[in-house]
C-alpha cells in the first residue's frame, strides 16, 4: 500500500489558455495509505481523468504523481503496482471463478498453497465460495462483476485498488449489499481504495473521505458528515443531499443581515457585503409566527415522500425546501409561514466559498 500525492494539472488539448481547457485544474492532493476514498461529481468533472492519472494509464500534462514520496509520473500501471476494476467485467470466460481470482497471484509467482488460501478468503468475502469451480462464462453479469472486484482485491501487495463506477452493471438490490461488502473488505484488508462514482449515496456509504469534483476542480475533500454539515462550496451544498442545500442571497452591514426582504441580526461575525445564506432542508424548521432569525415565505407545494413531507415555500430571493417529520401539523398551500433560516447549522458563503 502507498500514500499517493498529486501535484498536477491535465489538459487533453495542447497549450491550454483558460480554465475550461483543463480536464483537471492545478491541484495538490494526498490519499493516505490504507484510506478508502471516493471521487464524486457530475459527468465530465474530471473523475476518470484523475483515476487514470493515478493508475498510470494517463500522464498528466503538468506536474507529478508520487507514491510514498517516489516520483512515478512516467511509470505504467504495472510498474506502479495498481489494481483496477472497471464498469464492466474484465474476466476470462473460459476459466473457472477460482482460476480467474487466482490469475493476478499466479502472474506474480505466488506459491500454490498461498494462492488457494487467498482466493478462498476473497471468495468468501464476496460470497463466491459456492461458485469457485464453475466456469465464468455461464454466470450472470453481477456474478461476473463480483469476480472482477475479487481480482482487484486479491493481491495484498498492490499500491492501491482503483474502481471506476464498478457497480453500474449490478442490480439495485445487490448494489447496496456489495457496497457494504466492499466497506467490510476495506476494514479487513486495509487496502488503499479509490472509487469513482457520480452517485452520492454510493460515495458517502463507501468512503472514509469523499473528493467532490466540479469542472476539473476538487472543491472539497471530507467525510460524509463534513460534506453534509459544512459544505465548503455552494456546489457541494447543492450536489450532496436530496434535495440539496437551500440558498438565499443576503447582504451584511455592520452585523445586520438583509435577507428575504427583512433585516435580521447576524448570528456570527460576518464580513460586510453580499453573501449567501445556506441551510439544509433537514435543518429548516418553520412556524406560523414570527421568530428571531426567521424569514417569511409562502407555501407552494407539499409532497409526501414516505419518510417525511417535503415542503416548498417561496421566499423573497428563492424557493426553500424543508423536510418535515411525519405527524407535523402541515400549513395550507398559499399560507405565509416563517422559516428559521438562521440557526447554529446555517452556513454563510461569499463568492460561493464558505466564510462561516
Ligand atoms: N481522451 C480525451 N480527449 C479529450 N477530452 C477528453 C478525453 N477524455 C475526457 N475528456 C474531457 O475531459 C473532461 C473530463 O472528463 P472525465 O472523463 O475525466 O470526466 P468524468 O467526471 O469521469 O465523467 P464521466 O462520469 O462522464 O465519465 C470532459 O470535458 C471530457 O470531455
TrEMBL record:
An example of a GO molecular function for this protein is: ABC-type ferric iron transporter activity
Database matches in InterPro entries: AAA+_ATPase, ABC_transporter-like_ATP-bd, ABC_transpr_FbpC, ABC_transpr_MalK/UgpC-like, Mo/tungstate-bd_C_term_dom, NA-bd_OB-fold, OB_MalK-like, P-loop_NTPase
Q: What are the record's GO terms for cellular component?
A: ATP-binding cassette (ABC) transporter complex, substrate-binding subunit-containing
Q: Which residues form the ABC transporter domain?
A: 6-240
UniProt keyword terms in alphabetical order: ATP-binding, Cell membrane, Membrane, Nucleotide-binding, Transport
Pfam family, any one:
OB_MalK
Q: What is this protein called?
A: ABC transporter ATP-binding protein
Instruction: Please name the source species.
Output: Xenophilus arseniciresistens
> What does UniProt list as this organism's lineage?
Bacteria, Pseudomonadati, Pseudomonadota, Betaproteobacteria, Burkholderiales
Amino acid at each position: 500500500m502507498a500514500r499517493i500525492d498529486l501535484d498536477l494539472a491535465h489538459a487533453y488539448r495542447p497549450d491550454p489558455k483558460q480554465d475550461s481547457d483543463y480536464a483537471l485544474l492545478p491541484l495538490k492532493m494526498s490519499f493516505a495509505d490504507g484510506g478508502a476514498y471516493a471521487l464524486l461529481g457530475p459527468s465530465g468533472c474530471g473523475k476518470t481523468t484523475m483515476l487514470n492519472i493515478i493508475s498510470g494509464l494517463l500522464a498528466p500534462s503538468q506536474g507529478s504523481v508520487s507514491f510514498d514520496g517516489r516520483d512515478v509520473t512516467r511509470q505504467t500501471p504495472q510498474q506502479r503496482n495498481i489494481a483496477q476494476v472497471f464498469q464492466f467485467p474484465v474476466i476470462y470466460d473460459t476459466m473457472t471463478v477460482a482460476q480467474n481470482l487466482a490469475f493476478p497471484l499466479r502472474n506474480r509467482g505466488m506459491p500454490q498453497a498461498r494462492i488457494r488460501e487467498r482466493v478462498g478468503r476473497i471468495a468468501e468475502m464476496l460470497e463466491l465460495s459456492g461458485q469457485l469451480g464453475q466456469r465464468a462464462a455461464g454466470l450472470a453479469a453481477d456474478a461476473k462483476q463480483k469476480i472482477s472486484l475479487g481480482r482487484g482485491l486479491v493481491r495484498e501487495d498492490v499500491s492501491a485498488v482503483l474502481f471506476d463506477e464498478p457497480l453500474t452493471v449490478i442490480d439495485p438490490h445487490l448494489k447496496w449489499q456489495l457496497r457494504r461488502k466492499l466497506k467490510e473488505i476495506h476494514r479487513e484488508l486495509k487496502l488503499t481504495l479509490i472509487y469513482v462514482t457520480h452517485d452520492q449515496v454510493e460515495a458517502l456509504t463507501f468512503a472514509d473521505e469523499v473528493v467532490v469534483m466540479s469542472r476539473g476542480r476538487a472543491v472539497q475533500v471530507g467525510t460524509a458528515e463534513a460534506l453534509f454539515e459544512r459544505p465548503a462550496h455552494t456546489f457541494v451544498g447543492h450536489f450532496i443531499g436530496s434535495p440539496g442545500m437551500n440558498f438565499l442571497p443576503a447582504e451584511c452591514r455592520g452585523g445586520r443581515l438583509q435577507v428575504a426582504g427583512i433585516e435580521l441580526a447576524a448570528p456570527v461575525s460576518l464580513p460586510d457585503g453580499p453573501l449567501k445564506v445556506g441551510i439544509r432542508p433537514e435543518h429548516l424548521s418553520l412556524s406560523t409566527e414570527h421568530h428571531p432569525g426567521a424569514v417569511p415565505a409562502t407555501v407552494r407545494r407539499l409532497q409526501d415522500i414516505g419518510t417525511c413531507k417535503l415542503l416548498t415555500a417561496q421566499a423573497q430571493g428563492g424557493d426553500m425546501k424543508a423536510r418535515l417529520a411525519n405527524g407535523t401539523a402541515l400549513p395550507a398551500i398559499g399560507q405565509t409561514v416563517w422559516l428559521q433560516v438562521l440557526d447554529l447549522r446555517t452556513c454563510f458563503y461569499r463568492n460561493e466559498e464558505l466564510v462561516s
